[in-house]
Amino acid sequence: MTESTLNQQKKALREYCAEKRAQLSPNEIAAANEKLLRSVLSFPPFLAARSLFVYISLPREPDTHGIVEYAWAVGKQVYAPVCRGNGRMEAARITAWQDLSPGTHGIPEPLGRPTAPIGTRFDLSLIPCVCASLRGERLGHGAGYYDRFLENTPTLRLCLCYDKMIAETVPTGLMDVKMDYVATESGVFSCVDKL
């Protein structure tokens, strides 16, 4: 498959997913987030993790705020993404919501905080998606920040996705990093045995 064809397939799937996501009511999203929170908080690698890399969710994304607050409450180290102008992403530790300011695309980021060295190991990383498959294929928003970050970061990769945004297959290229697990409101699914 050519790069152009792959990009067209990804664009079409993003548009389809945007329409599906727009159909989710606030009540559906709230109920899904509550169940998804329970899925993550009962996931053994999350319970055992001492260091977490976690995306800071926006409205209509699987919510990470409860996960972050629980992690702080039990003494886990929490790192959040910092996007750089060159398409690279780094991680900076956060200990309170006040550590975040609007950054790239208005997404809250720990701006001005020291970043972890490239290659720092995180016990578990929570990764966002537009949609994902249960084989670990993940479709992001297209900028490639997470794929570039994950290729240099030793970590267990957990993608958060609503059940209604799970696809049978997701078009991927050589640069697309696969997930180890996908968490939905129905539970956490291992992708390793489906590759």
Structure characteristics:
11 strands; seven-stranded mixed β-sheet; 195 residues; Rossmann fold; alpha/beta
Layout of helices and strands:
Layout: H1 3-22, H2 26-41, H3 44-48, E1 51-54, H4 65-73, E2 77-83, E3 89-94, E4 101-102, E5 108-109, E6 122-127, E7 131-132, E8 138-139, H5 145-151, E9 155-160, E10 181-184, E11 187-190
Parallel strand pairs: 1-2, 1-6, 6-9, 9-10
Antiparallel strand pairs: 2-3, 4-5, 7-8, 10-11
Q: In which range does the helix fraction lie?
A: 25-40%
The geometry reads as: globular
**Strand count:** 11
Uncertain runs are none
Helices and strands, in order, run as: HHHEHEEEEEEEHEEE
Q: Mind telling me the CATH class?
A: Alpha Beta
Instruction: Write down the Rg.
Output: 16 Å
CATH level-4 homologous superfamily? NagB/RpiA/CoA transferase-like
What does this structure look like?
With 195 residues, this protein is of the alpha/beta class. It has a single domain (3-132, 148-194), classed as 3-Layer(aba) Sandwich (Rossmann fold), CATH 3.40.50.10420. Helices cover 29% and strands 23% of the residues. It contains five helices and eleven strands, in the order αααβαβββββββαβββ. The chain has helices at residues 3-22, 26-41, 44-48, 65-73, 145-151; strands at 51-54, 77-83, 89-94, 101-102, 108-109, 122-127, 131-132, 138-139, 155-160, 181-184, 187-190. A seven-stranded mixed β-sheet has the order 3-2-1-6-9-10-11. Strands 4-5 form a two-stranded antiparallel ribbon. A two-stranded antiparallel sheet has the order 7-8. β10 and β11 (187-190) form a beta hairpin. It is globular, with a radius of gyration of 16 Å. The protein starts with a helix and ends in a 5-residue tail after the last strand. The mean pLDDT is 94.
